[in-house]
Design goal:
With about 700 residues, the chain is α/β, with parallel strands linked by helices. The protein is built from 24 helices and 20 strands. Helix 10 packs across helix 11 and helix 23 packs antiparallel against helix 24.
Length: about 700
């Protein structure tokens, strides 16, 4: 037999329950893999139905349609003479499993159920699936659905924890979470002689996460030798997550092929030719590995009369190690949310976005992400992406349109709106206008004072009392209520203009409203419920203020958006209280009683470090010992937890946000907490006080 194996992996932009579109993208990836000489093709986790089906996994329809798609794959000539490895849910003895279905020439070779299910953070696989608990055991009794028997020419297939033995090598499958577990299957499989490991993933983007995934893949073969192939989903498949591709192939601890992390290409295929003898010679000198291999319990092997190599392949060139190219966090913010927005826009079939642009850092960062999206669209069209071109033409309702200039595309799909009040400064108005000019958005200036006065007037007529701001002698309750009226009027106007702006301009379609509350403000609850933080989607809702400032600097340097300089230097402000001598007197950090830098620390300790009030205090007296006394730390921790718990109810209505941070307070699925707290935290705070007194 030959020694040079050619394998393919891919990143596919699948969409939950889009069986027709998912099938087309799977077909395309197989076709590309075959055209490049691959003899094995790996796809993402649950690629047939789409990873994000959630409670639709309970439905028999999802199982039925998945098998119907599998039937189409099996009977197509496209899938002949290549081992295809696809993902789908399978029902076995009334239990649902997350499975790989591996087939060759109309015959299913193995159905391999997932052993370790992802069940933390955004993942809830144990809600829908059961892990396969019989290690190194496969049954041969699974009956195929009646719909498939005619196509398959087989009524039963191997089902369980087994590996494939081809004529020239041995392949073993892992699935996503199994790579991240302490005792990953590839360890024992490698000791049992498996040379090619595969991993089908549904792994989403988090800032600074890529290096962890790459390190795990490379380390999987560094100690044990072997070839590791990873496929991943990409894009927005229907919720808050963006799956960030990064398909890769590694051998003996080194990357040999790298896929893109952010791209508008729906189908990306990586192919590599690798020498099996390199694996065997690498393993030969690791005596500790060979001693362990002599004692390993063997895996069931499914024999396959097929080879991944070709005879007489001595002169076939093989791939060499490469250096992985990582994006900076600022590049990740520029690209990830931009690709997510594009998927959301084209799949929602809307005509563009509307953003209330205040002239502050958060809304400006959101505007820059939309501008980056326009850059990515123009670049994709320039590179010949016909699908992006077709989507762009449909969105702008022009069959001859070719997007070439990001500013011109921005004008068509992006409306920004500065909503002034008597409390707004001319500075923020000018900043918003200048930024809109530089990115090319269709910009609207309007004043909300008439609406605010009308609403407050109704209250005054009914009650006979007129609330006043504190600077005019009113109470804090009056002042806060007057601020909230302004904020909520802006939300109502944002939706009105989103629905009718294009109509007023004689253009078809409606606009999606973008929110721009960052992750730190959501954590603290520094937002008005049902204000402009309430929108259709929020591309920065999972990003910290610190990272957004760095991103703004990145946009100044890379997009030449000089308007951002004055935005960067201005103190963040809500501009909801009266001006003093024409100048802004209200600032966010003064209102919150804490800095954005402190908020990021609180957020990471609360969520990632799992710290309650007492544990957070104990950690911070060490972290901040150079700048705060224990009593000052206690005061800060108490203030944070009071404000966090008082405002937690706001998270239940939080706009769906791009997930980018592991300390996100998103109440939908990621950060599950009560929203009615005892905000005195009496027992917890008493423990802190006792420790302060002891110190």
């Amino acid at each position: 037999m030959g020694r040079a194996v050619t394998v393919a992996t891919c990143a596919l932009n699948q969409w939950a329950l889009d069986f027709e579109g998912n099938l087309e993208r799977i077909f395309r990836s197989i076709d590309i893999a075959k055209s490049k000489g691959a003899r094995y093709r790996l796809g993402p986790e649950l690629e047939i139905c789409g990873y994000g089906c959630s409670d639709h996994y309970y439905e028999s329809d999802t199982l039925l349609h998945s098998f119907q798609v599998l039937e189409k794959l099996l009977e197509s000539p496209v899938t002949q003479d290549i081992i295809c490895d696809v993902g789908m849910p399978v029902l076995h003895r009334n239990v649902r499993y997350n499975c790989r279905v591996i087939f060759l020439n109309k015959k299913i070779l193995l159905i391999r159920p997932k052993i370790a299910l992802a069940n933390a953070g955004n993942y809830r696989e144990l809600r829908w699936f059961t892990p396969w608990s019989k290690a190194r055991y496969a049954v041969h009794q699974i009956l195929l659905p009646e719909v498939d028997v005619l196509v398959f020419s087989q009524e039963t297939v191997p089902f369980g924890d087994a590996v494939l033995a081809t004529k020239d090598t041995c392949l073993g499958a892992e699935m996503c979470e199994e790579l991240w577990t302490p005792n990953s299957p590839h360890i024992e499989m490698g000791l049992d002689g498996v040379e090619v490991f595969t991993n089908s993933s549904g792994s989403h983007h988090v800032l600074r996460k890529a290096h962890t995934r790459v390190d795990l893949v490379n380390s999987a073969t560094a100690k044990n030798g072997g070839i590791y192939i990873l496929a991943n989903q990409k894009g927005c498949d229907g919720d808050r997550l963006y799956y960030d591709g990064c398909a890769m192939i590694s051998m003996n601890g080194a990357t040999v092929a790298q896929g893109s992390q952010f791209s508008l290409d729906d189908v990306e295929v990586l192919v590599a030719t690798l020498d099996l003898e390199d694996v065997r010679s690498y393993r030969a000198e690791i005596s500790s590995r060979n001693l362990a291999a002599s004692k390993v319990n063997p895996y069931p092997r499914v024999k396959v009369n097929f080879a991944l190599s070709c005879p007489d392949d001595v002169a076939v060139p093989t791939c060499v190690p490469i250096q992985w190219r990582y994006h900076s966090p600022e590049e990740e913010i520029s690209l990830g949310p931009a690709c997510w927005l594009w998927d959301y826009l084209r799949r929602s079939k809307q005509a563009g976005f509307l953003l209330p642009l205040s002239g502050g850092i958060d809304s400006s960062a959101t505007a820059c992400i939309v501008y980056s999206m326009c850059h990515q669209v123009c670049l994709a069209v320039k590179n010949g992406n016909a699908e992006v071109l077709a989507d762009a033409r449909r969105i702008v309702q022009d069959e001859t349109y070719i997007p070439e200039d990001p500013r011109e595309l921005c004008k068509r799909v992006f409306t920004t709106c500065y909503m002034a009040s008597e409390n707004s400064s001319q500075d923020t108005c000018n900043r918003a206008k200048l930024l809109a000019e530089q990115i090319g958005s269709y910009h609207i200036n309007l004043n909300i004072d008439a609406a605010v006065k009308a609403i407050v007037g109704i209250f005054s007529i009914v009650t006979g009392r007129t609330p006043r701001f504190s600077v005019y002698g009113g109470s804090s309750r009056e002042s806060l209520a007057l601020q909230n009226v302004q904020a909520r009027v802006r939300m109502v106007l944002a939706y009105l203009f989103a629905q009718l702006t294009l109509w007023a301009r004689g253009m078809p379609g409606g606009l999606l409203v973008l929110g721009s509350a960052n992750v730190d403000e959501s954590l603290r609850g520094y937002l008005t419920k049902y204000d402009c933080s309430s929108a259709d989607i929020n591309p920065i809702g999972g990003i910290s203020k610190t990272d957004l400032k760095n991103f703004i600097q990145y946009c100044i340097e890379n997009f030449q958006l000089t308007a951002l300089r004055s935005i960067m230097s201005a103190p963040p402000t809500a501009e909801l209280e009266p001006l003093v001598d024409g100048q802004v007197a209200q600032t966010d950090e003064a209102d919150m009683g804490m800095t954005y830098a402190e908020l990021s620390v609180y957020g990471k300790l609360r969520k990632i470090a799992k710290a309650g009030p007492y544990s957070m205090f104990c950690k911070l007296i060490t972290m901040w010992k150079e700048i705060c006394t224990p009593r000052e730390v206690a005061s800060k921790v108490k203030h944070f937890f009071r404000m966090y718990s008082v405002n937690r109810h706001k998270m239940t209505t939080l706009t769906p946000s791009y997930h980018a941070e592991n300390y996100s307070p998103d109440d939908n699925r990621f950060d599950l907490r009560p929203f009615l707290y005892n905000t005195t935290w009496s027992w917890q705070f008493r423990c802190i006080d006792k420790q302060v007194n002891a110190l």
